[in-house]
Amino acid sequence: MIRLFERHKKRRSFTLDGLWKFRTVPERKGFDEKWFECFPEDFTEVFVPSCWNNELGLYEYEGTAWYSKTFSVNKENVKIVFHGVTGFADVCLDGKHLGSHYGSFTPFSFNVTGISEGEHTIVVCVDNTHNDADTIPLSTVDWYHYGGIIRSVEINELENVWIENCKIYYTLDDDLKSARLNMKVRLKSADGVKRSDTLRIYINDSIIYEADVEIIGESEITVENLELNDVKLWDTENPYLYYVRFETEEDDLTERIGFRKIEIKNKVLYLNKKKIYLKGVNRHEDHPDWGVAFPVKLMKKDIDIIKNLGCNAIRGSHYPNSEAFLDYMDQEGLLFWEEIPMWGFPESVLKNPLVKERGLKMLEEMIERDYHHPCIIIWGLHNEIATHTEAGYNITKAFAEKVRSMDNSRLITYASYHPMDDVCFTFVDIISINQYFGWYYGEIETWAGFLEDFKSRLKGQGLEDKPIIVSEFGAAALYGEDTFECIKWSENYQEKLLNHTLKLFHDDPDIIGCYIWQYCDIRTAKEVGLTRARGFNNKGLVNEYRKPKLAYWSVKKIFKKQ
Ligand code: ADA
Predict the structure, then answer these.
(1) Fewest CB atoms within 10 Å of the CB: 1, 50, 108, 420?
(2) Where is the Glycosyl hydrolases family 2 sugar binding domain (predicted)?
(3) Distance from the CA of 514 to the center of ligand 1, in angstroms?
(4) Whose CA is nearest to atom 7 of ligand 1?
């Protein structure tokens, strides 16, 4: 399941979820052998979407694998959308190379026109290798590099003219009662022939716009200044959603939006002009049975547990999450921080132009995909990169400019691990810091003094007007480990650390929220596995099977009161 609402009433679309032919192979073998034309005989089968590391015998496999699936279409034009393929993907249809894509967590698509109705075969080569020079993420990260076609592959059957995409921008009037909308709709046709059509736009089934249009190949239609009165707002209590449907004679596309205003004034965060404090967790999409390829049922369970904890916010650490997860947060009124998987890049790697190029592309694809989700209030540029260096400065500047050029309606931040000598805070709206006092260094009580020192440093640099988020803090607790002495690795030590820090942050007027590291225990990369008990990052409030640790109940008490 890709989305939680119906995107088309007219257009036929379906997923290729199911069993695919599958073959692993070292070092990108298979191209010279023309496996895209003739798939090797000795294949096995896997379910798509999934992670191959959840298959028997492939627990630690990181490399290349080939996939193949035969399917039928009833039209001559189709759009094939890959919603998530790890690393490098090369796609062939009926033996012809359609194209390639890099980046695991955002979709890519191909429009294929003039094919025959009936059966076709798609072959995909997935290369999930990482290095410490130019892949995003690098090899060395603190989560597992699952491989595979991790999200659905979708086939859309297209008519002669179809809706390629649309963008809905709005501004709310000062009283938040009416909205002004601007929209952009891109129509495409399979050939260069001039075609006439009619474009209609509906909001919640009421028509708000109609015009005759002409398309030669591709046309962008701009609709300006549509006014909507008596707007129902989207907020954490009542997350009201509007359905905007674009329709031509033979095609349609529905988007879902929510009207809300997020802003910072005098270091206070406001949602729809009401002060809000972010009570959050960092969450990886990770489960022992599914890896990163989550079923919607499990997403719902995670959101139920997180809401029950009293949270109003989630940070999608450290990559764009599944579209269905974002849809569900839209429906549940949760506030989301979304970021790209750029984690822990040292200065030397940040100088590589390919890293910058790939990072910019990932930001672009993330914002393009998720622009309409009201749950997203913060775009994260990266996590714990060398923001105390010139290379960190240059890349952060470029990233911030890119994000602002695409979306000025949300807040920008990144998680800094160099708070005392960071040189990039000037580019962002919120200063976010990751610190582990009481775990890797210092004592739990060190936090208070550190915050005072940090704030004086900000003042000294004229940055005291920016609010602070504590984007990561926490302690590892082995599930079931309970001690009289309250020592590290026990559930009671984690509880003690979180009790202390959550109260401290909430009482600090400069802090607008915090995200506990982390929601659940996760499998980690082999590069750091041996420094982590069980090969897991154990700082979850629940374990990897979502069983609560002691801290869960204390955090719940605190968050419910705050
Ligand atoms: C970092 C990082 C997290 C995780 C955490 C930890 O701050 O951003 O992904 O690795 O440390 O547990 O040490």
Answers:
(1) 420
(2) 16-155
(3) 15
(4) 434
Handedness of CA 522, 525, 527, 530 (dihedral sign): positive
Report which DSSP code applies to 445.
Answer: T
Strand order from edge to edge, sheet including 252-257: 206-216, 194-203, 242-247, 252-257
Tell which CATH classification among 3.40.50.1980, 3.20.20.80, 3.90.180.10, 3.40.50.300 matches the domain 273-561.
3.20.20.80
Ligand 1 site, residue 64, Cβ cutoff 6 A: no
What are the residue ranges spanned by the domains of the chain? 18-151, 161-257, 273-561
Tell me the HSE value of 558 on the side-chain side, using a 13 A CA sphere: 24
| Residue of 138, 142, 281 best suited for mutating to test ligand 1, as the one with most atoms within 8 Å of CB | 142
Per-residue pLDDT 10s for the chain (562 aa) are: 899 999 999 999 999 999 999 999 988 899 999 999 999 999 999 999 999 999 999 999 999 999 999 999 999 999 999 999 999 999 999 999 999 999 999 999 999 999 999 999 999 999 999 999 999 999 999 999 999 999 999 999 999 999 999 999 999 999 999 999 999 999 999 988 899 999 999 999 999 999 999 999 999 999 999 999 999 999 999 999 999 999 999 999 999 999 999 999 999 999 999 999 999 999 999 999 999 999 999 999 999 999 999 999 999 999 999 999 999 999 999 999 999 999 999 999 999 999 999 999 999 999 999 999 999 999 999 999 999 999 999 999 999 999 999 999 999 999 999 999 999 999 999 999 999 999 999 999 999 999 999 999 999 999 999 999 999 999 999 999 998 999 999 999 999 999 999 999 999 999 999 999 999 999 999 888 778 999 999 999 999 999 999 999 999 999 999 9
Distance (Å) from CA 529 to ligand 1 centroid: 13
Contacts of 134 (CB under 8 A, 6+ apart): 349, 352, 354, 355, 358
Q: Is the dihedral of CA 460, 461, 464, 467 positive or negative?
A: negative
- Asked whether 537 lines ligand 1 (CB < 6 A), one says yes
**pTM strictly above 0.90:** yes
- Closest Cα to atom 9 of ligand 1: 142
CA of 256 to the centre of ligand 1 (A): 33
Ligand 1, residue 472: give the atom nearest the CA: 7
In CATH, what class is 18-151? mainly beta
Interval between CA 471 and ligand 1 midpoint (Å)? 10
Rounded CA separation 89/498 (Å): 41
120's tokens: 């076709």
Cα(434)–Cα(337) distance, rounded to whole angstroms?
15
